[in-house]
Structure to design on (352 residues):
């Protein structure tokens, strides 16, 4: 039975990417060796990581002066690497608190130095994106989360930081156009729009580094990974390879401009059903709704069993909301076909 995978991450990847990836595990480029048993220093793998970096640069329009890294430790380790690399000794940073991941980023930064929270939607269960807050001049950097995976809210505009600008783009990178030159540090776990879990994409402006006058442990210092081109330690070869394939797929599809339009269309379709079907209600403030994670509740809990069973029958998987919000969350990342969204809508229409 065909499955419609609405998981929040790890999540749906293009079928053709999965086919190519599984082939490479058995026999990579007709070498009769598996991709995961060749040396990361061999030319065939160097070609993979080089291509992956080139695709990131091309698709996002990364200007010169920025490094592109494939690291490990997930976006969660970037919560710590960000302050270690950007916060001066006795320094200060400003953060927005827009969801559970933002909160975790704040917690890590507080271990390193002073943090002020400049926009906070926690009192409303993170159902909106704070706006019109002041970011003071005396900070080392400002940090925000572009898309709040659990609560289904997304920043449609980015404020200007008076100093450095850092952003966790884990759940919407490659889904829409961004102007990289307005950011100094961008990071994203691969496991939404880029590939499998196991690598983290970091885009960092070179000349912001080395200014904290603190001793940074080697593995946590971005300069280590820039100097060694993401090969200071053995890189996660499989996630990097699958990321390369997914980015190739995106390029062939027409790149960011094209996928942004498709994502907009998919999200509008689903939100419009939520807004017109009396049995469902969206949880995020309309103007801040995410085009990646669509969160909604049933208006009548007695319909839960019916809806859940209809979903199972239709092959819909992964739409249970995060345990901190409840309800439902349909994650409709780049690889989610519009047909699957139509299947979900047809199930929603069956509730009477
Ligand atoms: N930030 C955001 C916005 C996320 O959605 C996630 C995980 N889904 C993380 C950070 C944490 O990523 P990881 O599990 O790769 O550490």
């Amino acid at each position: 039975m065909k499955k419609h995978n609405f998981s929040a991450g790890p999540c749906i990847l293009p079928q053709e990417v999965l086919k190519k990836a599984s082939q490479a595990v058995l026999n990579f480029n007709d070498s009769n060796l598996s991709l995961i048993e060749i040396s990361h220093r061999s030319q065939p793998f160097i070609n993979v990581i080089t291509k992956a970096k080139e695709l990131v640069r091309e698709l996002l329009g990364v200007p010169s002066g920025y490094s592109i890294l494939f690291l490990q430790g997930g976006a969660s380790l970037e919560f710590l690497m960000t302050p270690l690399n950007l916060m001066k000794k006795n320094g200060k940073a400003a953060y927005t608190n827009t969801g559970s991941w933002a909160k975790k980023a704040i917690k890590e930064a507080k271990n390193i130095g002073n943090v002020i929270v400049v926009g906070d939607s926690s009192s409303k269960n993170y159902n909106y994106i704070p706006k019109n807050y002041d970011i003071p001049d005396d900070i080392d950097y400002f940090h925000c989360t572009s898309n709040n995976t659990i609560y289904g809210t997304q920043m449609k505009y980015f404020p200007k930081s008076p100093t450095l600008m850092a952003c966790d783009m884990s759940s919407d990178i490659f889904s829409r156009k961004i102007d990289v030159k307005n950011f100094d540090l961008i990071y994203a776990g691969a496991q939404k729009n880029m590939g499998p879990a196991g690598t983290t994409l970091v885009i960092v402006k070179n000349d912001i580094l080395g200014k904290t006058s603190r001793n940074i442990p080697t593995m946590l210092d971005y300069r280590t990974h820039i100097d060694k081109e993401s090969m200071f330690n053995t890189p996660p070869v499989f996630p990097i390879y699958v990321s390369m394939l997914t980015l190739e797929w995106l390029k062939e599809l027409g790149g960011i401009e094209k996928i942004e339009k498709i994502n907009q269309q998919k999200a509008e379709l689903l939100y419009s059903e939520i807004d017109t079907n009396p049995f469902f209600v969206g949880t995020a403030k309309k103007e801040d709704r995410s085009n990646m994670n669509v969160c909604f509740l049933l208006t009548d809990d007695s319909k839960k069993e019916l809806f859940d069973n209809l979903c199972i029958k239709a092959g819909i998987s992964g739409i249970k909301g995060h345990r901190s919000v409840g309800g439902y969350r349909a994650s409709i990342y780049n690889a989610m076909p519009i047909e699957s969204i139509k299947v979900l809508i047809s199930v929603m229409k069956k509730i009477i």
